[in-house]
Amino acid sequence: MNFSNLLIKWYLQNKRDLPWRNTTDPYPIWLSEIMLQQTRVAQGMPYFLSFTTAFPTVFDLATASEEQVLKLWQGLGYYSRARNLHKTAQYIASDLNGIFPDNYNELLKLKGVGEYTAAAIASFSYNEVVPVVDGNVFRVLSRYFDIETDITQASAKKEFAALAFELMPKDNPAIFNQAIMEFGALQCVPKSPNCTICVFNESCAALQKKKVDQLPVKSKKIKVRNRYFNYIVASDESENTIIHKRIAKGIWHNLYEFPLLETDQEEGFNFVAEQIQNEYFKENIISSISETHEKSILHKLSHQHLHIKFWKVNVEGLIKDGINQETLKTLPFPIVIHNFIEKELN
What we know:
Layout: H1 2-14, H2 26-35, H3 41-54, H4 58-63, H5 66-73, H6 80-95, H7 104-107, H8 115-126, H9 135-145, H10 154-167, H11 173-186, H12 205-208, E1 225-235, E2 244-245, E3 256-257, E4 260-263, H13 269-279, E5 286-291, E6 297-300, E7 304-315, H14 325-328, H15 335-344
Parallel strand pairs: 1-7
Antiparallel strand pairs: 1-4, 2-3, 5-7, 6-7
Helix pairs in contact: 1-11, 2-3, 2-8, 8-11, 9-10, 9-11
GO biological process, one term: base-excision repair
InterPro entries: A/G_AdeGlyc_MutY (IPR005760), DNA_glycosylase (IPR011257), HhH-GPD_domain (IPR003265), HhH_base_excis_C (IPR023170), HhH_motif (IPR000445), MIG/MutY (IPR044298), MutY_C (IPR029119), NUDIX_hydrolase-like_dom_sf (IPR015797)
Function: Adenine glycosylase active on G-A mispairs. MutY also corrects error-prone DNA synthesis past GO lesions which are due to the oxidatively damaged form of guanine: 7,8-dihydro-8-oxoguanine (8-oxo-dGTP).
């Protein structure tokens, strides 16, 4: 079909040279696909290189500790991806002797591997005729064919997958999948694509109908919750501090943080200082409390906006279970806390 031929020709002329594209080994392909969920290639590339250096095989990843994995993942966000990655590596190494499943249906059974990732590995590693459907694919196909299906509906993925399957050359599904994703990432971008230089500018239905900026249709709006975090950064006479692991389900599971006072709204010095005096470090005398920044740091997550303040608390004597700066820097933290440690505690 003309669409597929034009698309693949464009891809061969414009594709980026990415390390996971130069192999059919499912391990680096799987790594890259998990890392690039909700992450741009430019942001994910250094992490991919760090992981493949630290863990060149699935066995190396399997034998690493969860803390090592989370530390290397630090800053990439969506930390459940890293925990699932680690568990799946352990399963592949121990139960499957290090050999990845070689088809879509079996890949789908792996923890953390959804339809899109299973399709990507199956087609790129094993040339299985299965279409990938991600945001790029929704965008390219909805614009080219003027499809007004709401992509947040459960049925949308089936509809777009069926269309992609029809368009896909059955003798080379891998190149088609790579091409359509790359085209969405580089050319048919979400906002203000340069349609004048597009290879489809004579056949794209959305362009003819001046609907490019209206497609794909996506109705649901994410409700964002505001939360107010006050982190208490203690320092004793030996400059030791105190941290704990977030073990509750929810954001940042199994990462470390300073003692946290969460409030219903942004609070000023008097309120927070009183809470610290009454609730924390009862075995030590607090010599001073200070706000590191008057304005809170806004840290945006997909469904939450965190308004974060750090409060330095100097205490007399030694803190029970305190840790030194050296140990502090080896542990995995949410990136906003890691950045604070690097900047303020050096």
